[in-house]
Design brief:
This protein has twelve helices and no strands. It is flat. Helices cover about 70% and strands about 0% of the residues.
């Protein structure tokens, strides 16, 4: 028995498995209900607050688009436009809370070492979304100018404020989502759906796809304007592939 005891002591011992808390279906539903309640409350508060200065935001957006003025066609249409702007501003301002709650909900499904990346991913998601919003507002005058250039000389653009603001808001949200590319790639790599090897293997197709997407998102008659979109997107792609490679994914 003494010899057997010595042999067992010298054998490599596996680390005891970490007990992960498993949530039942009811607990998952309760967590989802809590997340939705927090998101709705945060979105509602920011929307109500944004409504009080949404008129000034509309005025600034019309000016930013390079238009001297805009019109509205119905007595109550401008109020609806202000409400629409307030809803979108509320979503953008509440985005940190929304993103944090989403990550809080999915984090129980991650391993312990992956949960340590939750805070950096939340910060990265907010940062890249804000960067996309800034890029959209920067490119807005170019968009309006290029689109209006397709009209013949005897046709004048009379901006309906509701349609114009709707176009701008969709554009802003779209840019914010597109700029989440590096976060999406890193998360897919963490989940082992993609790998750095796959990204490098298909680098040419990514290069072409990002180039086409940049030309679509930033229309212009010169070849330099799309570079404002293409260069950061391609840098995001290379940085994401490098992060996955360094992390062994």
């Amino acid at each position: 028995m003494a010899i057997l005891d010595r042999v067992l002591r010298r054998l490599p011992r596996a680390d005891p498995p970490v007990e992960e808390e498993r949530m039942s279906v009811i607990e998952h539903l309760e967590a989802l209900r809590r997340v939705l309640i927090v998101i709705i409350i945060a979105w509602g508060i920011t929307t109500v607050a944004a409504f009080f200065f949404s008129g000034q935001v509309v005025e600034w957006l019309v000016s930013r688009a390079g238009l001297g003025h805009a019109i509205y066609l119905g007595p109550g249409s401008f109020v609806l436009t202000r409400l629409q702007v307030a809803i979108y501003i509320g979503l953008i301002v509440a985005a940190p809370v929304v993103i944090q709650q989403i990550w809080w909900f999915v984090s129980p499904g991650l391993h312990r070492h992956e949960r340590r990346l939750t805070l950096p991913l939340v910060i990265s998601t907010i940062f890249f979304f804000a960067l996309g919003v800034a890029a959209a507002l920067y490119a807005l005058p170019l968009y309006i100018r290029v689109l209006n250039s397709f009209a013949p000389p005897n046709v004048t653009y009379l901006a309906d404020v509701s349609e114009l603001i709707g176009f701008i808001l969709i554009m802003v949200i779209g840019f914010g989502v597109v700029f989440e590319l590096p976060v999406v790639l890193v998360v897919l790599g963490m989940l082992r759906i993609i790998s750095s090897r796959w990204l490098y293997k298909n680098r040419v197709w990514w290069f072409l796809g990002l180039g086409v997407g940049a030309n679509f998102l930033t229309p212009g008659v010169d070849p330099f304007t799309p570079l404002l979109m293409f260069v950061p997107l391609y840098i995001f792609f290379e940085a994401s592939a490098l992060i996955l490679k360094l992390s062994g994914r």
